[in-house]
Amino acid sequence: MPLLYSRAQIREALTNGLTMAADEARLSSSAARFTWARTAAMTLLEKPGATWAEVKSEHNKAAPDEPPTDDDTPRFTRDQVSQAVSNGVDLAANHNGRAIPDDLDNLVVNAALTLLDAPEADFRQVVAECYGERPSVVRSWL
Fold it and tell me: pLDDT tens, 110-130?
């Protein structure tokens, strides 16, 4: 049986991955490119075929007072998470003026997925696992 992840674990890995990428690029993690990517990924996790209008609706909602009762229930496979994060980042890039995802978008995906399995990973570990380059090389792409 495949390992399953909870919505809370996914949200934490995604948020930490976005923050890591933003920090390495010397940008604010509250920049639109990151907040829209987070919303898109989490929306697509729940509804893989969600449209941009549905992502916008979720993005514009006020934060709920309480997390869903099943927030800590492992329900999602790594493949589902990978698809949601990759497609969410791509969708956000497309709707935020980038025809294709750039190196920073790719770092978000790689960091989030690495942090899902290794929550204590740092930038060096993400680079070693996903790029096979020196951190300074990957940083120069951002």
Answer: 999 999 999 999 999 999 999
